[in-house]
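so the lab meeting is tmrw and i was supposed to have these ready like two days ago... anyway. pasting both below. for each one the top line is the aa sequence and the line under it is the structure tokens. i havent really looked at them closely yet so no promises
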Amino acid sequence: MLPYWILYFIPLAGVLLGRRLAPSARTAIWWSVSLLLTFLIGFRQQVGGDWYAYLAYLERASLMTLLEVLVHSDPGYYLVNWMVAGLGGHIYSVNLICGALLMSGVAVFGRRQPSPWLAFLVAVPYLIIVVGMGYTRQAVALGFVLLGLAALSDSRMRRFVILVLIGAAFHKSAVLMLPVAALASSQKRLWNLFWVGVISLVGGYLFLFDSVDALWTNYVEANYESQGGLIRVLMNAVPALLFMILHRRLDLTEAARRLWWWMSMFALVCIPLVMLSSTATDRVALYLIPIQLFVFSRLHLVTQDTLLRAYIVTGIVAYYAAVQAVWLLFASHAHAWLPYQMYPFAS
């Protein structure tokens, strides 16, 4: 359990000491820490609830032709496995590539926030530890969504669409994020609604529509339950509600304000949806985790009072420490993450 707490205390040190460093040192340390976490994700040994399932992916990919890989479900992930298998690599190489893609999204998105280390700290307990080390395919898709959201905040809609489509090649559910681009646009809205709508339909056809019946049967009709799903949805809903109340005090551009208004709306809509299908909603809600990083890294900006700002930051640090502690101690699947083992040092 100690390695996970070390992961938490690294960005905490950045929160406490980051502003005392020269800008060049901050940048070097930021990317060094991102690289460290990439290695910890990539070289984990038997960590994560789907560890053996991902070994099976690598075995299947090693027996496929390139054409079979490209027409398979989630072709991006199969392509990575196919290339690694062809070069004689192991699951650690696959996980290292996927970890790098996730951490690229976290690092780029986090650096754009007013308190980057606070955004990093918020990402550690669930986004990095649970998703990054447990849901490999969706973690990569989320990494591309984070890169896309960073672009969309600057009104670079085409880049967002391209990045989300790449993410959907690793986990088809990412295609559900495409409509955000049109809804968040503040200029040429009808045109943007049209072309993003067309691309959403094409993306849905390529990645999702052929699986709708199976997804509905498996997640809704079968009434699968994701333990803790409501709690994780509420973790997105809290910053969403705070954003809706305080967004005018956060000094945002109109593009950013519109984008995160819709992200907040989707996060709140997940509350009643999780009652219908906790597993399906829980997995879709993973793509709304960025709202936690966005809101909590700038929540202290709502006041000019230095002492009150310190209290807000302290409260966020304590809250996410509690999130990590509760998950590690009480989550039903936490045993799959404990103890953390790293190749080649694992017994």
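ok protien two:
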Amino acid sequence: MSQNKNTGYIEGLKRFALNRPVIFSFFVILISGLLTEIPFGRIFVSWTGRPGDELVTVLIGHTLTGLLLVWLLLKLDLFKYAGFTPVRQWKAVWLVWPFVIFTLLNLDSLISGSLVIDTSRPALIIIYIFRNLAIGFCEEVMARSVVLVVMLQKWGNTRRGVYQAVLVSSVLFGVSHIFNLLAGRSPVLASLTQMTYSFVFGVAFSACFLRNNAIWPVMIMHAVVDMAGGLHHIAMGGASQAPVANSTITQVVTTLIISAPLLLYGLFVLRKVAPVEKPGSPEPLFNSM
């Protein structure tokens, strides 16, 4: 009786997710955001110090939340659409090349020598690397494997529906970064800018996810871009001495101008994503023409 009841709850949740994907996605993002804010790092502060405890909080929170989202995909029978495909099934990995450029742009301070990595704390560097891998894992599973997939199941049987799913899921992905503002990690202007360019990145990530038939490449590039952009965490002087990104109008305009072409790139790449004839068809969910 109990097993049948649990099955009924899961089927009900799946129907809700596929019939009301925007509302379902809102709650997925809200719960995921709250889970990643749990201060796990306080347990390790005596060992890691600062900013090590903050990095550990992000590492543990995002890893556990990402695994919980994978479990959700399995329970809702959507894992087969989530992009966890073997390498032999990847189709167009080269499409992630713009993210390589953004990685190099984020490394400008390291290349110029204005930022120097603090190699005296190797444990902190290792934590930092895994922290960014955890962010890439969690945020891509959330935004692409869960949110985008349920929207594609609802709207993805037309080309217009594919674009609609990508744009709406990317808006929600951008808005999800409001937690940085609510938690006091960044001021209003910087947070609004991050939400805007996260939307742009979301469109490009979604396009590469669908064209590649794989989530792994965008996970990796997401992590690498973030890793290059946050090196102040492991730099000499630490994060406390790093200037706040996008805190001036000039910085904001520059950031948006640099990231804007990525939106056009994502929409261009999407043109070869063929919609399925009907949602719920056998995998793969989408094919490139």
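from a quick look at the 2nd one: The radius of gyration is 19 Å. The longest helix spans residues 122-155. will dig more after coffe
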